[in-house]
Write the structure tokens for this entry.
Amino acid sequence: MLKNPPRYIRLFYGKDDFVNRILTKDLIGIYRKDKKDWFSLLVLTIFSGVYSIFIINGLQSKTSIISIVQMDNIFLTILMVFLVIGNYQFKSIIWYSGEDRHLQLFKKLKIHPLRIYRAKKRVSHIVLLPLVLLYGLIPLFFLYHYSLNGIIYAAVRILPLVMYASVIIEYPLIHDARKKIVRAYKNHIFMRSGDLIMVIVLVQGIGLSLLISLISNQGMLNNHHLLYWLLFGVVFLILAVIKLRYFIIRKSFKREEVS
Amino acid sequence: MVKLKDVSFKYSNEDVILNQTNMTFDKGKITVVLGKNGIGKTTLLSLIDGYLTHDEGEIDKEDEAIFIYDNPYLYEYLTGEEYIELIKSIGKRQMLDNMDKLISELALTSSMNKQISAYSLGMKHKLALLTALSLNYQLYLIDEPLASLDPDSQSFMMDFFKKMRKNHKTLIISTHMLNIAYELADDIVIFNHKKLEKFKNTFGSYEDFKAFVVGSLRVELIE
């Protein structure tokens, strides 16, 4: 598409196809147009990083795994809220509807909506990569301080955590695309960033914290780590169900009439 | 050719745009749609384009259309050259082979390396038109194409539309500008009271044309 795309964009290149052309265009757009938004994302990432170090240091003194889980849950709630803020900040470029009237042009050019969606999903993941990477790097702090409980916990939490981040990133993207692609579909609930943040804070920040406190106070976890793994498994299962739901919605883009 | 058969469309029960309307837009001609503000000219073009779906009736098109909006939506952070390259690479259609000449004729050569965000509305219109032309469609739906252009560009664009007609392209243009309608149109379509009425542009003078249109619509139009 471009004679000499910037090197940082070529880092994310695959073959020269529609998805990569849209990706290039969007990354150039963010680079050239939305420098203020980049700055906000940078601040969010730095703030998340500082906060992570603070939390990890706090965890070093904890010997029981339940204390780590409790603190980490609060920490993750805040990071996920940052992720939502970052996602909505770039919505004019990274969401499906950001293509505006070009969607009609793409329809004429026989570009399937699913390919447009894939391009937007990829760009959203790249843009929010710094925040997601942070979650992956955090376990390294445990290694540095050598906290055995921390290392075990960090090792098993990576997969559901990445799944969780991807669920949060994709939620507004897929519903935004669905609104545009499926003419009959209306989605007035949870499309505002405030709604989504509220759900995360209520369900994860308050609900899950209370549940962990409750079973912790009952002494149920002290000698029964099985219960902790059960809780972990339930969260994992919920995420898997949501991912499956997204998969089904994406498949429906192939069938539905494009508006 | 575009044929509307008993077409009805409404946004809501109070906002009916077309009611059992019939109309034929001939191939290889310039048809200008005139009507007062808010009557539904853009909606009509959107229905022909397929962007909106009519409630009743049929719309038959021999050729697929491309819509050039009055307020073009372009990727403002790309340069004009990058934008055209992007659309061409996605389009995979048989492109025009005289693009450089066209860019030069549209006086866009020196602007092609600038970001679109720095373009005036007139330049954006030209770029949108250029992009549409580069995709080489047969049927062009053009909403208020000349309102934002300076007189020189208006004159150039009118000549250009006439050249397109010579090349057997079909143009359906909506405008408020009577002088442009008079100069360009083979057929005039008056959009009034949720109906369309077509007239051949065989008026002896511009004054006759103006009197007829203003009388038909009983509205003020821009000259």
Remarks:
- The CA atoms of residues 158 and 184 of chain B lie 7 Å apart.
- Chain B touches chain A through 23 residues (CB under 8 Å).
- Residues 151-166 of chain B form the longest helix (16 residues).
